Structures are given as structure tokens and as C-alpha cells.
């Protein structure tokens, strides 16, 4: 098969912090270095992009030395944690921004769908917006005209086609926008998590359409998602990014396995250094751990056991009511539930400085099997302030031994669902 | 080894590109988008209004009314013997076209950051669409000017259009290129440092007084002969004076001034395009 994308030594640097009065002097220094033919003094080679630790310089390598090739007709999933560089890679591939070093070579037209409905004008009608959006995505007018009916049909908004899109429901808006993009005649389609919008039925339709595009029409699809289900269904191969580096390029199931093990397997406890910890001048995060009710830190729990998560943080300044909060995510990125500490009377008062530990315990027979990713935060409710919010703080596995398990009984098949609570059933013979 | 195995690529994305690669071919491929953008601007301008495109008339009519009262009658600035409203309208529509192109282009990256950060198309399309959208507005206002011209001509005012009226298309290109070129230079600088945007917001209205919108060049030559080069320095001056001279037969036209204007305009346009193309690659990261 012919190669359609070739990425060589691709790197991208971002500057952290604010642009302000300090920036212009640095720009001048950079300019001066370039005139003398020297290296950029602010790019320190060799630092990785780990956003949890503070680096030595205020630039960050969002992507570092990426090399890969994509063949025609492939559907490639790009996965990785938040901040791994997925979106940056897509932005470079779709030419929204340019790389700092290295190059990407592409054969054929590229259409990117980093957001649905880019350039939709609220005052214009659905029909007018199809033309406008199509042209923005790179279609010629004649091409749009030819496909107009097909697009309207796919979106299912025929009745509203002469209505300004500002009167559309958000669902209709998304349908119309995706319909335009799905009918692009480009050789390469780049899609960023746009499927997280729209209802389930439409999502299915979109996935189906994208599947057709790659398998049926021989076009190449690059797809970023946190939804492992969608990636598995759609993509033959996947690329795993970690801290801006490419850590794997293989068939999808292998990569997803690696991803889950490497990124989420062994982080049931995490501590932060004094100066690198999330937080502000009021409160700082020190430690997050998952443990059983006896306090033993564990990386896997039986779904029949209780799971506790403890957040340790230091209050530095008096004067705020503080509430610790926690998010539970599964590997598909679904937020299973959130919990805020609301019952402890201490936390209805202003908290005095000191080190605190807050523990929340999830009942047994409640979480479903699989990896659980924990996000922690400390917030003030009124006025609402987020002192820190560390998503992906720790992760642990819920294991279903599948024998004599209360929630599944003798049933041995797969049990879907994001939670698996043990519920009370009552049956009587009537 | 041998060149036969070397593959051909349609697009190459790198961090650097040549200074003079202006991607004009790309722009041509996206010409439909340019048309649709212009249509969008025009249609969305008068959606949900009762008067619709008539609003294009309102602004210049009220402006020349004010100018006639304040500058013409109160301050008593002469107008080369041309009926005052006609004199002001000639200057105003040209100045407004320039000012609109300039101010809108100078904030083009910021105004469209949402869209430009999500999809690629030749960025030059955006400022070009501004120039063409405003050209429609200018055309509508030109109709107003012709009507007023016919009105005063009918009343027997001394108006003698001459052959220089044929330069009109050139003047339009010049004024559009000036707004576009200067706007692109400013837009490139303001993506990172917004300071210049503030200067534009109060500087452009003030800049109007450095060109011959509310007074004729002849008056400046007469009163401040030694400093008249300041007014001539502004490339808009040559356009307005030539326009007035062609349509109304009054004004200070000289080929030298027009030649200077063409040179400056070309310089602005080329510099603007080059800077714009350099900035557009990475502006998403800094805007």
C-alpha cells in the first residue's frame, strides 16, 4: 500500500505562562541569537513534557521527535492521556499550526474536523451554512451543490433548511455540521473527539460513516478519542503518545492494552513535592492514595470490597471554607460520578491552617470492573473557587473474579454498564 | 540512490518556509470560499433589519450632514468651490473604505481565532474577504455619491468631470491595497502584542485629519506650504484628490503625487502579505 502520511522528527514547542512585558525582551534575545547563528537560548533540548512536575525552563515540548508513516486506507487511532500531545499532533497535521522542527509530508487532500460547525454563522440558514462550512473545509461550490441533498438527508434537518441555525437545537446543529464534514471528498480525514456530542443514535451513524470512509472508500482516517470503544471499533492501528513522545504504534488492541497498563496500572498512590504540587496560596495537594478499609494501599480491588481514596493536603491560609471533592472516571473517559464532602460539620466552617486528610469510601458491590481513574480537587463553594483540580491523579483496577460474585450470581457472560450496584430485588408469585 | 524511487508529496508541513512563498495558488483554489465569506458578511449585515441594505446609506448621509454644519459652516473651511455635501461625501466614502479595511484587517486574527484555530484554509482569504465585503458597501455609497452629483449638476453647480475619471478603478485598487497592506502588518504584530490594537482604535479616526477629507489640499498648500508634504505623505491623500479631480473637476491632482502613492501602496501590500504569511503559521499559539 502507498504511504500517504510521513512524519519525520516532528517536534513542537509551546511557551508556558503569559505573554507580557517580559516576552519582548526574550523575543529580542532570540532574534539576536538567530542573527549570530546560534541556537534559541530558550529551547532546552532533552526536557520531557510531564505536566505534573515543574520544568527548568518555561517552554514545553508538546511533541518530541515523532516519526511514523500512515498507509492509504488505514484508520489510525491516536490515544494518550490528557496533555500527551494528541491535539497538537492533529493541529499540525491539519495545518492549523506549524511544527517547531521536523516535517510532515502528505499525499492528497486533507480535511480536518477538529470541531464541528467551524465557521457556522448563526444568522445564516442551514442551507447557506452548508455551503459556507463546506467551503471552509475545502470543498468547491459545485461539489457542495452536487452533494447538497445527500448532506441534508444525512443530517435529517430537511424541514429546517431555510431557518437560521441560531434557532436550531444543539443536536440539530451538530448533525448538520457533521453531515457536511462527512461528505468531504478528501483523501485524508482527521477527526478529533467530535463524537462526544450528539445523541447515541447519531454517534452510531457517524462511526458507521467513518468506518465506511476508511474501509469502503479507501480513504485514510486519523481519529483522536478517549473513547476506547470507538477507537477499537473504528481503527485498525493506533498510536500511543505519552508526554509528547511516541511510545507505541501497533494494532489497536495491543496499543490499548499497553496504554491501560503503562499509564494507569501502577499509580494507586501519588505524592507531590513541595514546590511542584497542584494548588495555590490557600491550599496545596500533598498526596492521593487508594486503599482498603484497613489502610493498605492497593492497585487492584475486588469489586466486592470497599474502596477508599484519601486526599492529603495542606491548608496554608485561614479564611476559606474548603471542600475536598473527587471524580471517578472509567477508561473510556466516562465520568462515573463525583462526590463532594458535604456531611462533615468541620468543613462547613472556615478551616484553620494545617495538614488534613480526607477519606471517601465507595461501597462494595458498586463499581464495575475495569480501571478507575481518580481526579481530586479542593474547592470553595461560595464564591466558587477551584483551589486545585488534579485529573488523572491516581488509578486502580476493579477486578471481577466472576465466581460466586453477588452481583452476577451464576451468570458468566459479560456485564456491561459503568457501575454494577447490588440492588434489592423483590419477586413474588402472583 | 536514484530519483525514480523518490516519492512525490502534495503537501509538506514544516516549521520554516520561504519568505516569498505567498500561497497565492492556494488562495485561488479557495476562491469559492472567498465569495461565500463576502456573501456571508453582506447577508448577515442586514438580517433581521427592516431597512436592510439601506443602512449603508445612513452612515455617510449623517456624516456629511455633520461635516457640512461643523466644518463647512461653523468653521468655514473652504471646499474648492464644490458644493459642500458633495465635497465631503467624496472624501468620506473613500476614507471610510480605507478605515474599514484597515481596522477590520488589523484584528482579523483575533476576531476569527476560533475558526482559524480549528481548520486550515489560506489565511489570506480572511483579509481579502474583508476588502471585498467593504467594497460592496463602498459601491452602495458610490451610488449615493452619483445621485448627489447628478442633483447638484442639475441645479447648475460648476462640476466638470474629466478624463481622469477613468483612473477610478485604479484608485479603488490603490485604496483597498493600502487598507489591506497596512492592516495585515498591524494584524501580524497584534497577535502577540496587543498594544498596537489600542493605537489603531483611536489612531485611525485621528488619521482622517491628516488627509484631505474635510479640507482640500489646495487650502493646505496655500496656508501651510512648508508643511504640506505631511499631508501628501499620507497615501490616501493622492487617492482622494485624484478622485475629486476626476469626478468634480476640482482639486490638486499631480502625477508625481499619484506615482508616489502607487509606490507606497505596492510597498505596503508586499510587506503586509509577507509578514502576514509568516505570522499565520503559528499565530494560533500566541493569539
What do you see in this structure?
The complex is a heterodimer of chains A (430) and B (287). By secondary structure, chain A is an alpha/beta fold. Helices cover 23% and strands 32% of the residues of chain A. Chain A has two domains: 3-263, 3-Layer(aba) Sandwich (Rossmann fold), CATH 3.40.50; 269-399, abc- transporter (atp binding component) like domain (Coagulation Factor XIII, Chain A, domain 1), CATH 2.70.50.60. A six-stranded mixed beta sheet of chain A has the order 5-6-7-3-8-9, with helices on both faces. In chain A, helix 3 packs across helix 4, helix 3 (126-136) packs across helix 5 (170-182) and helix 4 (141-155) packs across helix 5. In chain B, helix 8 (168-190) runs parallel beside helix 13. Chain B is globular and about 70 Å long. With 287 residues, chain B is mainly alpha-helical. The longest helix of chain B is centred in the middle third of the chain and has 30 residues, at 125-154. Mean pLDDT of chain B is 85; it is low at 1-5. In chain B, 68% of the residues lie in helices and 1% in strands. At the A-B interface, strand 1, helix 1, helix 2, strand 4 and helix 3 of A face strand 1, helix 2, helix 6 and helix 14 of B.
Would you spell out the secondary-structure blueprint of this structure?
The complex is a heterodimer of chains A (430) and B (287).
Chain A: E1 3-15, H1 21-35, E2 59-71, E3 75-79, H2 86-93, E4 101-106, E5 110-113, H3 126-136, H4 141-155, H5 170-182, E6 188-192, H6 200-216, E7 220-224, H7 228-234, E8 237-242, E9 245-251, H8 252-264, E10 269-271, E11 283-291, E12 300-302, E13 307-315, E14 323-330, E15 335-340, E16 354-362, E17 370-380, E18 385-399
Helix pairs in contact in A: 3-4, 3-5, 4-5
Chain B: E1 11-14, H1 24-29, H2 31-46, H3 55-74, H4 84-106, H5 108-111, H6 113-116, H7 125-154, H8 168-190, H9 195-207, H10 217-223, H11 228-233, H12 235-248, H13 255-280, H14 283-286
